[in-house]
Amino acid sequence: MKEKKVPSPFATLWGWAELYHTSLYSSVVLAILGVGCNMLAYFCVAAIIRLLLAGANINACWPWCGLMLAGYVGKALFLARSTALSHTATYHTLRDLRKCLLSKLSRVPMGTILGTPSGQYKTTIVDRVEGMEPTLAHLIPEMTSNLLVPLAITVYIFMLDWRMGLASLVTPVLGLFIVAQSGKTYGARWQGAVETGRRMTNAIVEYVGGIQVVKAFSQSAGSYKKYARAVEDNAQYFVDWMHANQKYMASWQSILPAVLVTVLPTGLLLWNGGSLAAGNFLTIIVLSLGLTGPLIAAMSFVDELAVVGTNVGEITKILDAPELNRPEQPVPIAGNAVQLKGVSFTYGKTDAEVIHDISLDIPPGTVTALVGPSGSGKSTMAKLIAGFWDVTAGTITLGGINLKEIPLAQLNQQIAYVSQDNYLFDRTIRENIRMGRPEATDAEVEAVSKAAGCDSFIRALAHGYDTLCGSGGGHLSGGEKQRISIARAMLKDAPIVILDEATASIDPENEALIQRAISALTKGKTLIVIAHHLGTIVNADNIVVVDKGRIAAQGKQAELQESCPLYALMWQAYLGSRDAA
Ligand SMILES: Nc1ncnc2c1ncn2[C@@H]1O[C@H](COP(=O)(O)OP(=O)(O)OP(=O)(O)O)[C@@H](O)[C@H]1O
Protein backbone atom coordinates (compact mmCIF):
# COMPACT_ATOMS: atom_id res chain seq x y z
CA MET A 1 0.00 0.00 0.00
CA LYS A 2 1.27 3.45 -0.89
CA GLU A 3 2.09 5.50 2.20
CA LYS A 4 0.36 8.88 2.43
CA LYS A 5 2.94 11.63 1.93
CA VAL A 6 3.06 14.06 4.84
CA PRO A 7 3.72 17.60 3.53
CA SER A 8 6.83 19.33 4.88
CA PRO A 9 6.27 22.07 7.49
CA PHE A 10 7.20 24.65 4.84
CA ALA A 11 4.73 23.24 2.34
CA THR A 12 2.04 23.34 5.06
CA LEU A 13 2.88 26.93 6.01
CA TRP A 14 3.02 27.96 2.34
CA GLY A 15 -0.41 26.36 1.91
CA TRP A 16 -1.84 28.40 4.80
CA ALA A 17 -0.59 31.56 3.05
CA GLU A 18 -2.14 30.52 -0.28
CA LEU A 19 -4.31 33.62 -0.65
CA TYR A 20 -1.27 35.87 -0.36
CA HIS A 21 1.24 34.07 -2.59
CA THR A 22 1.34 36.94 -5.12
CA SER A 23 2.36 39.41 -2.39
CA LEU A 24 4.96 37.01 -1.00
CA TYR A 25 6.50 36.32 -4.42
CA SER A 26 6.58 40.06 -5.12
CA SER A 27 8.26 40.71 -1.78
CA VAL A 28 10.99 38.14 -2.64
CA VAL A 29 11.64 39.79 -6.02
CA LEU A 30 11.77 43.25 -4.42
CA ALA A 31 14.09 41.99 -1.65
CA ILE A 32 16.46 40.55 -4.27
CA LEU A 33 16.45 43.91 -6.08
CA GLY A 34 17.07 45.69 -2.75
CA VAL A 35 20.04 43.51 -1.76
CA GLY A 36 21.33 43.75 -5.34
CA CYS A 37 21.19 47.57 -5.14
CA ASN A 38 23.11 47.41 -1.89
CA MET A 39 25.83 45.31 -3.56
CA LEU A 40 26.10 47.92 -6.31
CA ALA A 41 28.31 49.99 -3.97
CA TYR A 42 30.99 47.27 -4.04
CA PHE A 43 30.93 47.11 -7.84
CA CYS A 44 31.21 50.92 -7.99
CA VAL A 45 34.22 50.91 -5.63
CA ALA A 46 35.84 48.18 -7.74
CA ALA A 47 35.18 50.18 -10.94
CA ILE A 48 36.68 53.36 -9.43
CA ILE A 49 39.81 51.42 -8.32
CA ARG A 50 40.20 50.07 -11.87
CA LEU A 51 39.82 53.61 -13.31
CA LEU A 52 42.37 55.06 -10.90
CA LEU A 53 44.84 52.23 -11.61
CA ALA A 54 44.40 52.91 -15.31
CA GLY A 55 45.24 56.60 -14.65
CA ALA A 56 41.78 57.91 -15.53
CA ASN A 57 40.65 61.46 -14.79
CA ILE A 58 38.71 61.99 -11.55
CA ASN A 59 35.71 63.13 -13.60
CA ALA A 60 35.38 59.58 -14.89
CA CYS A 61 34.72 58.47 -11.31
CA TRP A 62 31.67 60.70 -10.63
CA PRO A 63 29.16 58.61 -12.57
CA TRP A 64 30.15 55.61 -10.40
CA CYS A 65 29.60 57.69 -7.27
CA GLY A 66 26.18 58.67 -8.66
CA LEU A 67 25.39 55.01 -9.39
CA MET A 68 26.37 54.07 -5.84
CA LEU A 69 24.01 56.72 -4.45
CA ALA A 70 21.24 55.47 -6.74
CA GLY A 71 21.96 51.96 -5.40
CA TYR A 72 21.43 53.05 -1.81
CA VAL A 73 18.22 54.89 -2.67
CA GLY A 74 17.03 51.84 -4.65
CA LYS A 75 17.88 49.57 -1.73
CA ALA A 76 15.79 51.69 0.66
CA LEU A 77 12.81 51.82 -1.72
CA PHE A 78 12.85 48.15 -2.75
CA LEU A 79 13.37 46.79 0.77
CA ALA A 80 10.70 49.08 2.25
CA ARG A 81 8.15 47.89 -0.33
CA SER A 82 9.25 44.26 0.10
CA THR A 83 8.83 44.47 3.88
CA ALA A 84 5.42 46.14 3.57
CA LEU A 85 4.15 43.43 1.20
CA SER A 86 5.54 40.51 3.21
CA HIS A 87 4.17 41.86 6.50
CA THR A 88 0.72 42.56 5.10
CA ALA A 89 0.59 39.04 3.64
CA THR A 90 1.90 37.56 6.90
CA TYR A 91 -0.49 39.29 9.29
CA HIS A 92 -3.45 38.42 7.07
CA THR A 93 -2.27 34.79 7.06
CA LEU A 94 -1.91 34.79 10.87
CA ARG A 95 -5.38 36.35 11.20
CA ASP A 96 -6.90 33.66 8.96
CA LEU A 97 -5.03 30.93 10.82
CA ARG A 98 -6.25 32.14 14.24
CA LYS A 99 -9.83 32.35 12.96
CA CYS A 100 -9.48 28.84 11.61
CA LEU A 101 -8.15 27.54 14.95
CA LEU A 102 -10.96 29.18 16.94
CA SER A 103 -13.62 27.89 14.58
CA LYS A 104 -12.02 24.44 14.84
CA LEU A 105 -12.36 24.51 18.64
CA SER A 106 -16.12 24.96 18.23
CA ARG A 107 -16.27 21.74 16.18
CA VAL A 108 -14.16 19.39 18.32
CA PRO A 109 -15.84 17.42 21.11
CA MET A 110 -15.98 19.15 24.50
CA GLY A 111 -13.93 16.27 25.90
CA THR A 112 -10.96 17.23 23.70
CA ILE A 113 -11.10 20.81 24.97
CA LEU A 114 -11.67 19.97 28.63
CA GLY A 115 -8.88 17.39 28.53
CA THR A 116 -6.37 20.02 27.36
CA PRO A 117 -4.95 22.62 29.77
CA SER A 118 -6.34 26.01 28.68
CA GLY A 119 -2.79 27.47 28.70
CA GLN A 120 -1.92 25.09 25.88
CA TYR A 121 -4.57 26.53 23.55
CA LYS A 122 -3.47 30.06 24.42
CA THR A 123 0.17 29.18 23.68
CA THR A 124 -0.64 27.63 20.31
CA ILE A 125 -3.20 30.19 19.11
CA VAL A 126 -1.22 33.22 20.33
CA ASP A 127 2.47 32.30 20.54
CA ARG A 128 2.95 29.49 18.00
CA VAL A 129 0.94 31.38 15.38
CA GLU A 130 2.94 34.54 16.13
CA GLY A 131 6.06 32.38 15.74
CA MET A 132 5.19 32.10 12.01
CA GLU A 133 5.74 35.84 11.56
CA PRO A 134 9.56 35.77 11.22
CA THR A 135 9.30 32.83 8.81
CA LEU A 136 6.76 34.36 6.46
CA ALA A 137 7.57 38.06 6.76
CA HIS A 138 11.38 37.84 7.02
CA LEU A 139 12.82 34.42 6.28
CA ILE A 140 11.18 33.96 2.88
CA PRO A 141 12.12 37.33 1.31
CA GLU A 142 15.25 38.16 3.31
CA MET A 143 16.96 34.79 3.47
CA THR A 144 16.26 34.16 -0.22
CA SER A 145 17.65 37.53 -1.30
CA ASN A 146 20.62 37.37 1.08
CA LEU A 147 21.62 34.00 -0.37
CA LEU A 148 20.91 34.65 -4.05
CA VAL A 149 22.82 37.93 -4.32
CA PRO A 150 26.12 36.58 -2.85
CA LEU A 151 25.67 33.58 -5.14
CA ALA A 152 25.53 35.92 -8.14
CA ILE A 153 28.64 37.77 -6.91
CA THR A 154 30.51 34.50 -6.48
CA VAL A 155 29.63 33.56 -10.07
CA TYR A 156 31.00 36.98 -11.16
CA ILE A 157 34.26 36.37 -9.21
CA PHE A 158 34.57 32.96 -10.93
CA MET A 159 34.13 34.71 -14.28
CA LEU A 160 36.98 37.12 -13.40
CA ASP A 161 39.28 34.33 -12.16
CA TRP A 162 38.11 30.81 -11.25
CA ARG A 163 41.05 30.27 -8.84
CA MET A 164 40.08 33.37 -6.87
CA GLY A 165 36.47 32.15 -7.04
CA LEU A 166 37.49 28.95 -5.29
CA ALA A 167 39.51 30.90 -2.70
CA SER A 168 36.52 33.13 -1.95
CA LEU A 169 34.36 30.06 -1.26
CA VAL A 170 36.54 28.40 1.40
CA THR A 171 35.47 30.20 4.58
CA PRO A 172 31.79 30.72 3.61
CA VAL A 173 31.45 26.98 2.82
CA LEU A 174 33.20 26.02 6.06
CA GLY A 175 31.00 28.46 8.00
CA LEU A 176 27.84 27.08 6.38
CA PHE A 177 28.96 23.53 7.20
CA ILE A 178 29.26 24.45 10.90
CA VAL A 179 25.85 26.13 10.81
CA ALA A 180 24.42 22.93 9.30
CA GLN A 181 26.02 20.85 12.08
CA SER A 182 24.51 22.99 14.82
CA GLY A 183 21.18 23.06 12.95
CA LYS A 184 20.93 19.25 13.12
CA THR A 185 19.90 19.29 16.78
CA TYR A 186 18.04 22.58 16.64
CA GLY A 187 14.63 21.11 15.78
CA ALA A 188 14.72 18.67 18.71
CA ARG A 189 16.07 21.37 21.04
CA TRP A 190 13.29 23.72 20.06
CA GLN A 191 10.69 20.99 20.58
CA GLY A 192 12.10 20.60 24.11
CA ALA A 193 11.92 24.37 24.60
CA VAL A 194 8.26 24.31 23.56
CA GLU A 195 7.57 21.53 26.09
CA THR A 196 9.22 23.37 29.01
CA GLY A 197 7.51 26.59 27.91
CA ARG A 198 4.19 24.78 27.86
CA ARG A 199 4.72 23.38 31.36
CA MET A 200 5.56 26.90 32.55
CA THR A 201 2.46 28.44 30.90
CA ASN A 202 0.19 25.74 32.33
CA ALA A 203 1.66 26.23 35.81
CA ILE A 204 1.20 30.00 35.57
CA VAL A 205 -2.37 29.75 34.22
CA GLU A 206 -3.25 27.26 36.97
CA TYR A 207 -1.65 29.42 39.68
CA VAL A 208 -3.38 32.61 38.55
CA GLY A 209 -6.69 30.80 37.89
CA GLY A 210 -6.67 29.29 41.38
CA ILE A 211 -5.36 32.39 43.14
CA GLN A 212 -8.52 32.73 45.24
CA VAL A 213 -8.05 29.21 46.65
CA VAL A 214 -4.34 29.85 47.14
CA LYS A 215 -5.08 33.00 49.14
CA ALA A 216 -8.02 31.52 51.05
CA PHE A 217 -6.03 28.50 52.20
CA SER A 218 -2.72 30.25 52.70
CA GLN A 219 -1.04 27.77 50.38
CA SER A 220 0.95 30.34 48.54
CA ALA A 221 4.24 28.64 49.34
CA GLY A 222 3.18 25.16 48.11
CA SER A 223 1.38 26.36 45.00
CA TYR A 224 4.12 28.82 44.25
CA LYS A 225 6.68 26.00 44.35
CA LYS A 226 5.20 24.25 41.30
CA TYR A 227 5.11 27.54 39.42
CA ALA A 228 8.62 28.51 40.52
CA ARG A 229 10.00 25.10 39.50
CA ALA A 230 8.47 25.42 36.04
CA VAL A 231 10.01 28.89 35.62
CA GLU A 232 13.36 27.60 36.91
CA ASP A 233 13.30 24.58 34.53
CA ASN A 234 12.49 26.83 31.62
CA ALA A 235 15.42 29.16 32.35
CA GLN A 236 17.81 26.23 32.92
CA TYR A 237 16.79 24.63 29.64
CA PHE A 238 17.74 27.71 27.66
CA VAL A 239 21.02 28.17 29.58
CA ASP A 240 22.02 24.52 28.83
CA TRP A 241 21.05 24.95 25.21
CA MET A 242 23.05 28.13 24.91
CA HIS A 243 26.14 26.43 26.42
CA ALA A 244 25.82 23.46 24.06
CA ASN A 245 25.42 25.72 21.04
CA GLN A 246 28.03 28.31 21.89
CA LYS A 247 31.01 26.54 20.28
CA TYR A 248 29.14 26.32 16.96
CA MET A 249 27.98 29.94 17.16
CA ALA A 250 31.43 31.27 17.96
CA SER A 251 33.02 29.16 15.18
CA TRP A 252 30.73 30.04 12.29
CA GLN A 253 30.50 33.69 13.29
CA SER A 254 34.29 34.05 13.12
CA ILE A 255 34.99 31.71 10.18
CA LEU A 256 32.24 32.70 7.74
CA PRO A 257 33.19 36.39 7.33
CA ALA A 258 36.96 35.72 7.17
CA VAL A 259 36.99 35.54 3.34
CA LEU A 260 40.17 37.60 3.11
CA VAL A 261 42.11 34.88 4.98
CA THR A 262 42.11 32.81 1.78
CA VAL A 263 41.45 35.47 -0.87
CA LEU A 264 44.35 37.77 0.05
CA PRO A 265 47.26 35.24 0.07
CA THR A 266 45.91 33.43 -3.03
CA GLY A 267 45.56 36.75 -4.88
CA LEU A 268 49.04 37.88 -3.84
CA LEU A 269 50.62 34.66 -5.10
CA LEU A 270 48.72 34.79 -8.39
CA TRP A 271 49.46 38.50 -8.91
CA ASN A 272 53.11 37.91 -8.06
CA GLY A 273 53.18 35.04 -10.56
CA GLY A 274 51.77 37.40 -13.17
CA SER A 275 48.59 35.46 -13.81
CA LEU A 276 46.23 37.91 -12.05
CA ALA A 277 45.88 41.53 -13.08
CA ALA A 278 46.06 44.06 -10.24
CA GLY A 279 42.65 45.50 -11.26
CA ASN A 280 40.93 42.09 -11.01
CA PHE A 281 42.72 41.36 -7.74
CA LEU A 282 41.48 44.56 -6.10
CA THR A 283 37.98 44.12 -7.56
CA ILE A 284 37.78 40.60 -6.08
CA ILE A 285 38.96 41.84 -2.66
CA VAL A 286 36.25 44.49 -2.59
CA LEU A 287 33.55 42.06 -3.78
CA SER A 288 34.66 39.41 -1.25
CA LEU A 289 34.19 41.95 1.51
CA GLY A 290 30.66 42.54 0.21
CA LEU A 291 29.85 38.81 0.29
CA THR A 292 29.92 38.36 4.03
CA GLY A 293 27.27 40.89 5.13
CA PRO A 294 24.36 39.25 3.26
CA LEU A 295 25.58 35.75 4.20
CA ILE A 296 25.60 36.60 7.91
CA ALA A 297 22.16 38.19 7.51
CA ALA A 298 20.94 34.98 5.83
CA MET A 299 22.38 32.82 8.65
CA SER A 300 20.45 34.78 11.26
CA PHE A 301 17.34 33.05 9.88
CA VAL A 302 18.65 29.52 10.40
CA ASP A 303 16.97 29.45 13.84
CA GLU A 304 13.68 30.20 12.15
CA LEU A 305 14.20 27.32 9.73
CA ALA A 306 14.55 24.94 12.65
CA VAL A 307 11.54 26.15 14.67
CA VAL A 308 9.10 26.19 11.80
CA GLY A 309 8.60 22.40 12.06
CA THR A 310 7.64 22.60 15.74
CA ASN A 311 5.37 25.62 15.29
CA VAL A 312 3.57 24.12 12.31
CA GLY A 313 3.30 20.79 14.18
CA GLU A 314 1.64 22.40 17.21
CA ILE A 315 -0.85 24.28 15.04
CA THR A 316 -1.57 21.22 12.88
CA LYS A 317 -2.29 19.17 16.02
CA ILE A 318 -5.31 21.40 16.68
CA LEU A 319 -6.36 21.76 13.05
CA ASP A 320 -6.27 17.97 12.54
CA ALA A 321 -8.06 17.07 15.82
CA PRO A 322 -11.04 14.76 15.16
CA GLU A 323 -14.30 16.71 14.94
CA LEU A 324 -17.82 15.89 15.98
CA ASN A 325 -18.86 14.49 12.63
CA ARG A 326 -22.06 16.33 11.65
CA PRO A 327 -23.72 17.11 8.31
CA GLU A 328 -23.65 20.70 7.00
CA GLN A 329 -27.21 20.92 5.69
CA PRO A 330 -30.16 21.28 8.11
CA VAL A 331 -32.42 18.22 8.36
CA PRO A 332 -36.21 18.21 8.90
CA ILE A 333 -36.92 17.44 12.58
CA ALA A 334 -40.45 16.29 13.51
CA GLY A 335 -41.20 17.81 16.93
CA ASN A 336 -39.05 18.04 20.02
CA ALA A 337 -39.35 14.62 21.60
CA VAL A 338 -36.02 13.44 23.00
CA GLN A 339 -35.30 9.73 23.23
CA LEU A 340 -32.31 7.89 24.68
CA LYS A 341 -31.94 4.26 23.56
CA GLY A 342 -29.34 1.99 25.19
CA VAL A 343 -26.98 4.92 25.79
CA SER A 344 -23.55 4.22 27.30
CA PHE A 345 -20.74 6.71 27.64
CA THR A 346 -17.07 6.83 28.54
CA TYR A 347 -15.25 10.20 28.78
CA GLY A 348 -11.81 9.19 27.56
CA LYS A 349 -10.28 6.02 26.15
CA THR A 350 -8.63 5.30 29.49
CA ASP A 351 -11.60 6.31 31.69
CA ALA A 352 -14.22 3.95 33.12
CA GLU A 353 -17.73 3.94 31.63
CA VAL A 354 -19.93 6.42 33.53
CA ILE A 355 -23.32 5.93 31.79
CA HIS A 356 -24.50 2.36 31.30
CA ASP A 357 -27.21 1.35 28.81
CA ILE A 358 -29.72 4.09 29.63
CA SER A 359 -33.09 4.37 27.83
CA LEU A 360 -35.40 7.31 28.47
CA ASP A 361 -38.34 9.06 26.74
CA ILE A 362 -38.71 12.83 27.14
CA PRO A 363 -41.98 13.90 25.48
CA PRO A 364 -42.23 17.49 24.15
CA GLY A 365 -43.58 20.16 26.50
CA THR A 366 -42.89 18.12 29.65
CA VAL A 367 -40.69 18.67 32.68
CA THR A 368 -38.17 15.88 33.30
CA ALA A 369 -36.07 16.09 36.45
CA LEU A 370 -32.80 14.20 36.78
CA VAL A 371 -32.03 13.50 40.43
CA GLY A 372 -29.48 11.29 42.15
CA PRO A 373 -26.40 11.26 44.33
CA SER A 374 -23.38 13.33 43.46
CA GLY A 375 -21.34 11.73 40.67
CA SER A 376 -24.23 9.50 39.54
CA GLY A 377 -24.13 10.86 35.97
CA LYS A 378 -26.88 13.52 35.80
CA SER A 379 -24.74 16.25 34.23
CA THR A 380 -23.18 13.76 31.85
CA MET A 381 -26.65 12.69 30.63
CA ALA A 382 -27.67 16.34 30.18
CA LYS A 383 -24.50 17.15 28.23
CA LEU A 384 -24.97 14.11 25.99
CA ILE A 385 -28.52 15.32 25.21
CA ALA A 386 -27.11 18.78 24.43
CA GLY A 387 -24.70 17.13 21.96
CA PHE A 388 -21.49 18.20 23.75
CA TRP A 389 -20.13 14.66 23.37
CA ASP A 390 -21.02 11.75 21.14
CA VAL A 391 -22.42 8.71 22.97
CA THR A 392 -20.10 5.70 23.09
CA ALA A 393 -22.97 3.25 22.42
CA GLY A 394 -26.71 3.54 21.75
CA THR A 395 -28.50 6.55 20.26
CA ILE A 396 -30.04 9.84 21.31
CA THR A 397 -32.72 11.17 18.98
CA LEU A 398 -34.43 14.55 18.72
CA GLY A 399 -37.74 14.49 16.84
CA GLY A 400 -36.81 10.96 15.73
CA ILE A 401 -33.46 12.05 14.21
CA ASN A 402 -30.17 10.77 15.62
CA LEU A 403 -28.22 13.72 17.12
CA LYS A 404 -25.21 12.62 15.02
CA GLU A 405 -27.22 13.44 11.88
CA ILE A 406 -28.22 16.95 12.99
CA PRO A 407 -25.86 19.84 12.11
CA LEU A 408 -24.39 21.41 15.27
CA ALA A 409 -25.86 24.85 14.48
CA GLN A 410 -29.34 23.35 14.06
CA LEU A 411 -29.09 21.38 17.31
CA ASN A 412 -27.86 24.51 19.03
CA GLN A 413 -31.00 26.36 17.92
CA GLN A 414 -33.18 23.64 19.44
CA ILE A 415 -31.51 23.46 22.86
CA ALA A 416 -30.63 26.09 25.46
CA TYR A 417 -28.22 24.78 28.10
CA VAL A 418 -28.19 26.80 31.30
CA SER A 419 -25.55 25.59 33.73
CA GLN A 420 -24.66 26.85 37.20
CA ASP A 421 -21.42 28.27 35.94
CA ASN A 422 -22.70 29.97 32.81
CA TYR A 423 -19.83 32.04 31.63
CA LEU A 424 -20.21 35.76 31.09
CA PHE A 425 -17.71 37.48 28.81
CA ASP A 426 -15.95 40.71 29.68
CA ARG A 427 -18.33 42.68 27.50
CA THR A 428 -21.36 44.79 28.35
CA ILE A 429 -24.38 43.16 29.96
CA ARG A 430 -26.36 43.99 26.81
CA GLU A 431 -23.83 42.17 24.60
CA ASN A 432 -23.75 39.16 26.94
CA ILE A 433 -27.53 38.80 26.84
CA ARG A 434 -27.64 39.40 23.07
CA MET A 435 -25.41 36.35 22.54
CA GLY A 436 -28.66 34.36 22.93
CA ARG A 437 -29.83 35.84 19.60
CA PRO A 438 -27.33 38.20 17.95
CA GLU A 439 -29.96 39.90 15.77
CA ALA A 440 -32.19 40.84 18.78
CA THR A 441 -32.99 44.55 19.18
CA ASP A 442 -32.21 46.54 22.35
CA ALA A 443 -35.93 46.50 23.18
CA GLU A 444 -35.99 42.68 22.96
CA VAL A 445 -32.89 42.41 25.17
CA GLU A 446 -34.55 44.64 27.76
CA ALA A 447 -37.85 42.75 27.53
CA VAL A 448 -36.22 39.37 28.36
CA SER A 449 -34.23 41.02 31.12
CA LYS A 450 -37.49 42.19 32.69
CA ALA A 451 -38.96 38.70 32.36
CA ALA A 452 -35.81 37.18 33.92
CA GLY A 453 -36.02 39.66 36.81
CA CYS A 454 -32.77 41.46 36.11
CA ASP A 455 -33.89 44.69 34.46
CA SER A 456 -34.14 46.66 37.71
CA PHE A 457 -30.71 45.69 39.07
CA ILE A 458 -29.10 46.30 35.67
CA ARG A 459 -30.62 49.81 35.47
CA ALA A 460 -29.36 50.54 38.98
CA LEU A 461 -25.75 49.95 37.85
CA ALA A 462 -23.67 53.02 36.96
CA HIS A 463 -23.70 52.26 33.23
CA GLY A 464 -26.91 50.24 33.11
CA TYR A 465 -26.99 47.76 30.22
CA ASP A 466 -23.59 49.08 29.08
CA THR A 467 -21.84 47.94 32.30
CA LEU A 468 -18.92 45.60 31.65
CA CYS A 469 -19.39 42.16 33.25
CA GLY A 470 -15.67 41.61 33.99
CA SER A 471 -13.81 38.46 33.00
CA GLY A 472 -16.09 35.46 33.66
CA GLY A 473 -18.71 37.90 34.98
CA GLY A 474 -16.46 38.76 37.93
CA HIS A 475 -18.03 42.23 38.44
CA LEU A 476 -21.43 40.71 39.30
CA SER A 477 -22.80 38.63 42.17
CA GLY A 478 -23.52 34.90 41.70
CA GLY A 479 -27.29 35.47 41.66
CA GLU A 480 -26.99 38.37 39.19
CA LYS A 481 -24.81 36.30 36.88
CA GLN A 482 -27.31 33.47 36.96
CA ARG A 483 -30.26 35.70 36.11
CA ILE A 484 -28.34 37.28 33.22
CA SER A 485 -27.53 33.77 31.93
CA ILE A 486 -31.23 32.93 32.15
CA ALA A 487 -32.12 36.12 30.22
CA ARG A 488 -29.57 35.11 27.56
CA ALA A 489 -31.16 31.66 27.27
CA MET A 490 -34.67 33.21 27.14
CA LEU A 491 -33.64 35.40 24.23
CA LYS A 492 -32.53 32.28 22.38
CA ASP A 493 -36.09 30.95 22.76
CA ALA A 494 -35.09 27.31 22.10
CA PRO A 495 -37.91 24.76 22.43
CA ILE A 496 -35.81 22.54 24.75
CA VAL A 497 -34.20 23.92 27.90
CA ILE A 498 -31.63 21.97 29.89
CA LEU A 499 -31.12 23.49 33.29
CA ASP A 500 -28.42 22.60 35.80
CA GLU A 501 -29.88 23.88 39.04
CA ALA A 502 -27.59 25.79 41.40
CA THR A 503 -26.12 23.60 44.14
CA ALA A 504 -24.76 26.50 46.15
CA SER A 505 -27.07 27.84 48.78
CA ILE A 506 -28.54 31.10 47.62
CA ASP A 507 -30.29 33.52 49.93
CA PRO A 508 -34.08 33.09 49.89
CA GLU A 509 -34.70 36.43 48.17
CA ASN A 510 -32.33 35.57 45.32
CA GLU A 511 -33.65 32.03 45.11
CA ALA A 512 -37.20 33.34 44.67
CA LEU A 513 -36.00 35.72 41.94
CA ILE A 514 -34.13 32.94 40.14
CA GLN A 515 -37.09 30.57 40.39
CA ARG A 516 -39.34 33.24 38.90
CA ALA A 517 -36.82 33.77 36.07
CA ILE A 518 -36.64 30.01 35.45
CA SER A 519 -40.44 29.75 35.27
CA ALA A 520 -40.48 32.51 32.65
CA LEU A 521 -37.68 30.80 30.71
CA THR A 522 -39.24 27.35 30.65
CA LYS A 523 -42.91 28.25 30.05
CA GLY A 524 -44.29 25.98 27.32
CA LYS A 525 -40.92 24.33 26.68
CA THR A 526 -39.50 20.86 27.12
CA LEU A 527 -37.53 21.19 30.32
CA ILE A 528 -34.82 18.82 31.47
CA VAL A 529 -33.66 19.91 34.90
CA ILE A 530 -30.78 18.55 36.94
CA ALA A 531 -32.32 19.04 40.33
CA HIS A 532 -30.28 19.43 43.49
CA HIS A 533 -33.20 20.80 45.56
CA LEU A 534 -35.99 18.24 45.38
CA GLY A 535 -38.47 20.90 46.53
CA THR A 536 -38.34 22.60 43.12
CA ILE A 537 -39.33 19.53 41.10
CA VAL A 538 -42.18 17.97 43.04
CA ASN A 539 -44.56 18.76 40.18
CA ALA A 540 -42.28 17.45 37.40
CA ASP A 541 -43.98 15.20 34.84
CA ASN A 542 -41.23 12.62 35.23
CA ILE A 543 -38.57 12.39 37.92
CA VAL A 544 -35.65 10.19 36.82
CA VAL A 545 -33.54 8.78 39.64
CA VAL A 546 -29.99 8.24 38.39
CA ASP A 547 -27.66 6.03 40.39
CA LYS A 548 -24.15 4.92 39.39
CA GLY A 549 -24.76 5.72 35.73
CA ARG A 550 -28.08 3.83 35.48
CA ILE A 551 -31.74 4.76 35.88
CA ALA A 552 -32.78 3.37 39.25
CA ALA A 553 -36.44 4.43 38.91
CA GLN A 554 -38.66 7.03 37.25
CA GLY A 555 -42.14 8.39 37.83
CA LYS A 556 -44.01 11.12 39.68
CA GLN A 557 -43.03 12.36 43.11
CA ALA A 558 -45.71 10.39 44.98
CA GLU A 559 -44.98 7.14 43.15
CA LEU A 560 -41.26 7.37 43.72
CA GLN A 561 -41.64 8.01 47.43
CA GLU A 562 -43.42 4.67 47.57
CA SER A 563 -41.45 2.62 45.08
CA CYS A 564 -37.85 3.92 45.15
CA PRO A 565 -35.95 3.63 48.45
CA LEU A 566 -33.13 5.83 47.10
CA TYR A 567 -35.59 8.60 46.23
CA ALA A 568 -37.37 8.23 49.60
CA LEU A 569 -34.00 8.62 51.29
CA MET A 570 -33.13 11.70 49.23
CA TRP A 571 -36.54 13.19 50.00
CA GLN A 572 -36.03 12.66 53.74
CA ALA A 573 -32.58 14.29 53.47
CA TYR A 574 -34.14 17.22 51.62
CA LEU A 575 -36.84 17.67 54.25
CA GLY A 576 -34.19 17.49 56.97
CA SER A 577 -32.00 20.15 55.36
CA ARG A 578 -35.02 22.39 54.67
CA ASP A 579 -36.15 22.21 58.29
CA ALA A 580 -32.62 22.86 59.53
CA ALA A 581 -32.32 25.99 57.33
N1 LIG B 1 -14.67 15.53 32.00
C1 LIG B 1 -14.68 14.36 32.64
N2 LIG B 1 -13.73 13.44 32.42
C2 LIG B 1 -13.72 12.25 33.06
N3 LIG B 1 -14.67 11.87 33.97
C3 LIG B 1 -15.64 12.77 34.25
C4 LIG B 1 -15.70 14.06 33.61
N4 LIG B 1 -16.78 14.71 34.08
C5 LIG B 1 -17.38 13.87 34.97
N5 LIG B 1 -16.70 12.71 35.06
C6 LIG B 1 -17.05 11.55 35.88
O1 LIG B 1 -18.33 11.05 35.46
C7 LIG B 1 -19.11 10.64 36.56
C8 LIG B 1 -20.47 11.35 36.51
O2 LIG B 1 -20.24 12.75 36.71
P1 LIG B 1 -21.42 13.81 36.57
O3 LIG B 1 -20.82 15.15 36.62
O4 LIG B 1 -22.24 13.47 35.38
O5 LIG B 1 -22.24 13.50 37.88
P2 LIG B 1 -23.43 14.33 38.54
O6 LIG B 1 -24.45 13.32 38.91
O7 LIG B 1 -23.89 15.41 37.65
O8 LIG B 1 -22.72 14.91 39.83
P3 LIG B 1 -23.03 16.26 40.67
O9 LIG B 1 -24.42 16.14 41.20
O10 LIG B 1 -22.03 16.20 41.78
O11 LIG B 1 -22.84 17.41 39.74
C9 LIG B 1 -18.31 10.96 37.82
O12 LIG B 1 -17.69 9.78 38.24
C10 LIG B 1 -17.25 11.96 37.34
O13 LIG B 1 -16.07 11.81 38.08
From TrEMBL:
It holds the Pfam family ABC_tran. GO terms for cellular component: plasma membrane. GO terms for molecular function: ABC-type oligopeptide transporter activity; ATP binding; ATP hydrolysis activity. The keyword Thylakoid does not apply. It comes from the Bacteria. Keywords: ATP-binding, Cell membrane, Membrane, Nucleotide-binding, Transmembrane, Transmembrane helix, Transport. It is a multi-pass membrane protein. Its main location: membrane. Residues 27-306 form the ABC transmembrane type-1 domain. The chain crosses the membrane at residues 24-49, 61-80, 153-179, 252-271, 277-297. Residues 338-573 form the ABC transporter domain. It is found in: Cell membrane. InterPro entries: AAA+_ATPase, ABC1_TM_dom, ABC1_TM_sf, ABC_transporter-like_ATP-bd, ABC_transporter-like_CS, P-loop_NTPase, Type_1_exporter. This is ABC transporter ATP-binding protein. It comes from Aminipila butyrica. The lineage of its organism: Bacteria, Bacillati, Bacillota, Clostridia, Peptostreptococcales.
